[in-house]
Fold:
Amino acid sequence: MRRRIFSTFALAFATSVVAFAAQAAEIKNIVIVHGAFADGSGWRQASEILERRGFNVTVVQEPLTSLAADIEATNRILDLQDGPTLLVGHSYGGMVITEAGHHRKVEGLVYVAAFQPDKGENLATLAGSKPAAAMSIRETADGKYLYLDPKAFPADFAADLPAEEAAFAAKSQVLAAKDIFGTKVGDPAWRTKKSWAIVATEDRAINPDLERDMAKRAGSQVSEIKASHAVFASQPEKVAGVIEAAAKEVGN
Structure:
């Protein structure tokens, strides 16, 4: 009798553990952090693709006033998620997710044509280690903010978008505080959490070789996509595919 009761209890316990593990492993939340000189609207197509595949997608609209403020903005969105989350960052957004990725709900990181810093590094130093093709960053009159020259924006940021879309992106770009580019990053979350990286092979804003080197250093799983820096907008299906695969893999 005791043996039967014990066997029944053991079976029930094992079943509940398996069910809990399966539930805990499932990643349905995707949080996206856009880069400098842009906002989250360019992620609309990729977000809609992911939502059709069953994901809950939220795009952080960082203020781009300081790295600390952008990390705080990301953490506020992460706090709202109802479970395990995959955190995605484009360009400068990679600096943000490297620290925000320590959030307890973040299970993995995806860097999309992004900076992937180590402790003590800043964006300016990383960018200068392998100069990009673009030389179109300008300062505002007060010297406090940076922007991309609207005339050069289409070629340097979004060369593979339709001309009208690229022109509008240039006109609607979000200026970034100059101090952001010199702020050092703390301990990187990619040291303790799985990470993936998309290299945009035609990127003029970040040297593709720099993207490769940072991803290799972090031990990220790399996918290469022939696209401009705006790969998330020009190749939304492929970018969504990498994010979906990462969500599934990190859950196993």
In short: Residues 5-24 have pLDDT under 50 and may be disordered. The first helix runs from residue 2 to 25.
